[in-house]
Write a structure and sequence with these properties.
By secondary structure, the chain is an alpha/beta fold. 42% of the residues lie in helices and 23% in strands. Mean pLDDT is 92; it is low at 1-21.
Length: 380
């Protein structure tokens, strides 16, 4: 991040000089930029989001294009690195003259681009950067994913409305922003709904023995236990909760991804929030899954769905504005409110999406644990 800050002052000047209104146009084609980790440790996130965006572009072009223009995607690889993200963004804006950039997949790489994007009046929208600070750089910055604490709100609503829970226990890592953010949001929303948090238990990163906290949770007699932690901790916690006879539903956030590969039957009656479920029953989501499988010969992930929606949000903003001018488009995007593959999306004052989250249930199917789509919880 320090390298990014050293480059930032110079690059801001270069971007301001290079950018001259809506660009990326060549005859009947307009280019959309993308900065994603296409290689490296988080390449799965980036390649999936890029492919989702490509599918959206194919569909728009097949339907006649956008405002008389065919769309093309210029994708750059940041390898999940903030400095490389900034360099890629600078290339897209100054050399390729794009006015719209998708990316990046991670919060750090995305935040390296937000101030330059705002300065250059380039619309930047991330499919999966969840840090709350991402959109704070200005009104040209958007995201398609929900922010981390919102999962706590969704979890509380699901617990209260669907599981009919009225007494909740919470066990979370007190030293991790993700865990504490979800925990605080859950507790606030559950109480707002009319429920009671009867046990509020914390632990420290690296702990493996949770029996003291579990004993207090058992004494509180909750209807549900909220575990907003990563899968490795949850696997241990679920085992120790069940061992002490706590058989109520367990609930968590997207940190549970991979839990089924690391836990046994103690994870059953467990539910977690995700950005998208490939086995969704929503017709729009099902159509996307089929189209993605046909085009890329692979199943659609939540990152692919978010990449598709990210592209469609830009496209719908341009349609609503009736122009490629970014000042008009960002205002139009801020007013969008409609159905997308990952749910109904509208934006709040910070251009963070107000949208539902898929709830997945851990079930046993054909002899193994799987994540099955349960429902979508939309914000109240």
């Amino acid at each position: 991040m320090k390298k990014c800050l050293l480059l930032l002052a110079v690059l801001l000047c270069a971007l301001s000089a290079a950018f001259a209104g809506p660009g990326g146009q060549s005859g009947d084609t307009i280019a959309i930029g993308a900065v994603f980790p296409l290689s490296g440790g988080v390449a799965f996130y980036g390649t999936e989001s890029r492919d989702g965006a490509l599918l959206a572009i194919d569909e728009i072009n097949a339907a006649g294009g956008l405002l008389g223009k065919k769309l093309t995607l210029i994708a750059e690889d940041d390898e999940g690195d903030a400095a490389k993200s900034l360099n890629a963004f600078t290339k897209l804006v100054s050399r390729d003259k794009v006015s719209f950039v998708l990316g990046s997949s991670t919060s750090g790489a995305t935040m390296a681009m937000t101030i330059p994007a705002q300065q250059a009046k380039v619309i930047l929208i991330s499919p999966s950067a969840t840090n709350t600070e991402v959109t704070r750089a200005g009104d040209y910055i958007f995201r398609a994913c929900f922010i981390d604490p919102f999962q706590g709100v969704v979890g509380a609503d699901f617990a209260y409305d669907t599981l009919n829970a009225r007494r909740a226990a919470v066990l979370y890592d007190a030293g991790a922003d993700y865990n504490t953010g979800l925990a605080e949001a859950f507790k606030t929303q559950f109480a707002k709904n009319g429920g009671e948090v009867v046990a509020d238990e914390a632990y420290q990163s690296g702990d493996v023995d949770f029996n003291a906290q579990v004993t207090r949770i058992r004494a509180a007699n909750p209807d549900v236990v909220y575990l907003p932690n990563y899968y490795n901790d949850v696997a241990l916690q679920a085992k120790q909760l069940r061992a002490q006879g706590i058989n109520v539903p367990l609930l968590g956030g997207d940190g549970w991804d991979s839990l089924i590969d690391n836990a046994g039957d103690e994870a059953l009656n467990g539910f977690w929030s995700a950005g998208f479920a490939a086995d969704t029953t929503d017709p729009r989501g099902q159509a996307f899954v089929r189209a993605y499988q046909t085009k890329f010969n692979k199943p659609a992930s939540q990152f692919a769905a978010l990449g598709y929606d990210t592209m469609m949000l830009v496209i719908n903003g341009i349609k609503a504005a009736g122009t490629f001018d970014t000042a008009a488009v960002k205002d139009a995007m801020a007013k969008l409110n409609g159905p997308y593959v990952t749910g109904n999306i509208r934006f709040d004052a910070n251009r963070d999406p107000i949208k539902g989250a898929a709830i997945l249930e851990i079930v046993r199917k054909d002899g193994k644990l799987v994540n099955a789509y349960k429902t979508t919880v939309n914000p109240r």
